[in-house]
Write a structure and sequence with these properties.
globular, 5-stranded mixed beta sheet
């Protein structure tokens, strides 16, 4: 019965009825005597490729939509002169006259100018964002301008900090940039940079993300119900695209903040462009320059820095081919010099390199071929109370993917694709004289995936996106089938009702072995343990009660099976079943979101009411518990106001129910003579039974734009935690005192910072 249902589901993707054609007729076979019009569209200010531009030849009743690279092709056109119109919300409409000749390809490249109101450029959503809001669930777009409007920490704007200000997205603390989306830990999110997987997207112990905002073009966040083209994770997708370089002239930007310096350089090459953007902190150099040891006496100060480098090369090969090469290199380095008790050296980082070739077969069919490498490694070594230790984890993935997008007609847009990945895992830890690699976590497994999906415009008001994804990992010896369905019904021109359901599987797992991200390590799912699975149900409504306000409300429920936790009590075991026990979970809640965009005033407010529970038989005596990231209420407020052409101010405020934690019932002393280990260990109470105090914080910013040596410049003041509320990070117990004394470890106080950037 299951086989029949699966076959019927696959056949239904392709066996669908056609609907009548409209103005933008995408299915029009070319003839030998016909002409072809193609081109590339960019923003006249940023020179970025524009997606979703509507190209119309009204006299011929033909048209197209520019793709993600700003390219378009319209074939099968009759000879003669014709007028072409280019439309994109937020941009001035452009018109061009073209002479079409039989059997010839006419290339028309142009730039669209942003719309102006009262002499001031306004921020307004584009056609692509409007369409996303109408047809997809839990999908939010962000641009660099939105990210820059949110107050920064240390003068460094950060993508993850902005995402954490959206409903349904949580953070464990203000020094953690991990994304906890709808009851899922960070490893349940697929994070992509130019279609390449990023396995550890954080710097500075999770304080910053690896994404340099100067190199970002756009960001797509899908919090749940994502389509079959994405896979391998249980919860959400974060898809980040690096922007193209300037293909007309040499340009750049220099930025200085409290802790880092950034430099971006972009320049044209024949038929393309190059963008290079680098960032490095200078905390180590600053401490050396001020002779920190003389200032702080004999106190031993750690030496720390991180750096990252982005590279993007774009090459247009004729009118039908586009080649993009993307690279990323980032690393963190921490050295804590010996003080007689502790001596630690820590390094961790990512290396990414990929190439993507887009070939346009016709105005309604194109394909993308992707070849990429993604590596993540973390090492720590040193001594603790004269006991040597070493911790090493590595993951390398080489992947090949092919995606085909075919707009069969005005009613159907079909996507099919397949991918093959080769992984290489390594993991071991050493404590004292003990060195026990964890069995089944080292090796070279292969991962195979394939999908088919269709976006079917059933009627003027009803759209369905449905499909099937299948995955296989040879270590797990399991094949998964994930059907997914999203329905969007347009109640009125401004309001849309949406529903989504689907099955999602995950073979790889990130396990935290401590408070900071450098102790995180990836392990593969192995037989006989099945892969993790989630079943999602989403219902929502969104719309525009009146311009410029956008409102959305979504309810969700996730059933989780075979989810992985880390059992600290078994950290020396070589059995993967003992170190990483599995169980079930539930996550459900409701999210409210209100956004407004007026000429000089933008902002949003979000509210989330949610629950997360887990049941791992090997933990908490088999009883259901609340994980650390369960927070009942969450409120986010973001405001930005442009006072004039020079001045801009911003404010954010967050509130959240205190996170769950496990209180200790008592303590006992243990000594492991074989490794020379001696410590007081806790007797934990019920997991997640206690709550920290509620979390709340406000940040503010002010920016002043001016000219410096004839160049555009901006000075900024960011104030973190403006009313100096010290939130609780975690609680510790001093067992040397009788009775043991409990104290709170507090988070950051008020921190004002200055920054400056110059664009040239």
């Amino acid at each position: 019965m299951k086989i029949k249902a699966t076959l019927f589901f696959l056949l239904s993707i392709f066996c669908v009825s056609n609907s009548s054609a409209s103005l933008l007729s995408f299915h029009h076979p070319a003839t030998i005597d016909s002409a072809t019009l193609s081109g590339h569209i960019r923003d006249s200010v940023t020179h970025e490729s524009l997606t979703g531009v509507r190209i119309e030849l009204r006299q011929l009743h033909r048209g197209a939509i520019s793709d993600i690279n700003g390219n378009f092709t319209i074939s099968g056109l009759p000879s003669g002169s014709s007028e072409v119109e280019f439309h994109l919300l937020g941009y001035t409409t452009a018109k061009r006259s073209v002479d079409l000749n039989s059997g010839k390809i006419v290339t028309l490249n142009l730039e669209l100018s942003p719309s102006l109101v009262g002499g001031k450029e306004i921020t307004i959503e584009g056609e692509r964002e409007r369409e996303i809001e109408k047809t997809s669930v839990s999908h939010i777009m962000l641009t660099p301008s939105t990210i820059s409007q949110v107050p920064a920490i240390g003068g460094e704007s950060d993508l993850f900090r902005v995402l954490q200000l959206l409903p349904g997205v949580k953070a464990l603390s203000e020094i953690s940039s991990g994304l906890y989306i709808r009851g899922g830990p960070p490893d349940q999110n697929l994070i992509l940079l130019d279609n390449n997987v990023v396995y550890n997207p954080t710097h500075l112990f999770g304080f910053f993300s690896t994404f340099n905002t100067d190199a970002i073009k756009d960001v797509d966040l899908i919090k749940g119900g994502y389509p079959p083209e994405y896979g391998g994770r249980l919860t959400g997708v974060l898809d980040v695209t690096t922007r193209e370089g300037n293909s007309d002239e040499i340009a750049g930007k220099t930025s200085l903040s409290l802790i880092s310096a950034k430099q971006t350089l972009e320049f044209p090459i024949p038929n393309g462009s190059v963008l290079i953007s680098g960032r490095r902190t200078y905390i180590d150099a600053f401490l050396s320059a001020i002779n920190a040891k003389s200032l702080f006496g004999d106190s031993t100060l750690p030496q720390y820095y991180f750096y990252d480098l982005n590279l993007k090369i774009d090459q247009h090969i004729g009118s039908a081919d586009h080649l993009s090469i993307s690279g990323y290199l980032g690393s963190d380095h921490l050295v804590y010099p010996s003080n007689g008790i502790v001596d630690i050296t820590l390094t961790w980082g990512n290396q990414l390199l990929s190439g993507e070739w887009t070939h346009i077969f016709s105005d309604n069919l194109y394909a993308k071929t992707f070849l990429g490498y993604s590596g993540y490694s973390t090492q720590s070594y040193g001594t603790l109370t004269e006991n040597p230790f070493e911790f090493d984890n590595g993951l390398k993935e080489t992947s090949l993917k092919e995606d085909i997008d075919w707009r069969a007609n005005d009613a159907h847009e079909l996507k099919i694709g397949a991918g093959l990945s080769r992984f290489n895992f390594s993991f071991y830890n050493t404590l004292g004289s003990t060195n026990k690699p964890l069995k089944d976590t080292s090796g070279v497994p292969y991962y195979l995936s394939a999908y088919a999906q269709d976006e079917w415009k059933i009627s003027t008001n009803l759209t369905a996106t449905y499909g099937l994804r299948t995955e296989w990992l040879d270590f797990a010896n399991a094949v998964t089938l994930d059907p997914r369905l999203t329905l969007a019904y347009q109640l009125t021109p401004d309001w849309t009702l949406k529903a989504s359901t689907g099955i999602y599987h995950q073979f790889l797992h990130l396990v935290s072995a401590g408070e900071f991200t450098f102790f995180d390590f990836w392990v593969p799912g192995v037989a006989p343990l099945p892969p993790s699975m989630s079943t999602q149900y989403i219902l929502g409504i969104s719309g525009y009660p009146s311009e410029p306000y956008f409102v959305s409300c979504e309810m969700y429920y996730k059933k989780l099976n075979n989810i992985v936790e880390y059992n600290e009590a078994k950290f020396l075991s070589d059995s993967i079943e003992q170190v990483f026990p599995r169980g079930t979970g539930d996550a459900y809640g409701i999210e409210l979101f209100l956004r407004e965009r007026i000429s000089n005033f933008t902002g949003w407010i979000g509210y989330t009411l949610s629950w997360v529970t887990e049941n791992i038989p090997e933990l908490n005596n088999g009883q259901t518990f609340y994980p650390t990231y369960d927070q009942r209420n969450d409120i986010q407020l973001v405001l930005n106001y442009k006072l004039s052409d020079q001045w801009e101010v911003g404010l954010t405020w967050t509130y959240a129910t205190g996170q769950a934690y496990t209180a200790d019932l008592g303590y006992y002393h243990v000594a492991l003579d074989e490794v020379g280990f001696e410590q007081d260990l806790e007797v934990p109470g019920n997991m997640g039974a206690q709550r920290l105090p509620p979390y709340h914080r406000a940040d503010a910013s002010a920016a002043y734009s001016f000219k410096m040596f004839g160049r555009e410049a901006k000075a900024s003041l960011d104030v973190f935690n403006i009313y100096d509320h010290r939130n609780v990070w975690f609680r510790v117990v001093d067992t040397q005192k009788q009775p043991p004394q409990v104290s709170d470890v507090l988070l950051l106080p008020i921190i004002p910072t200055l920054g400056i950037e110059v664009t040239y």
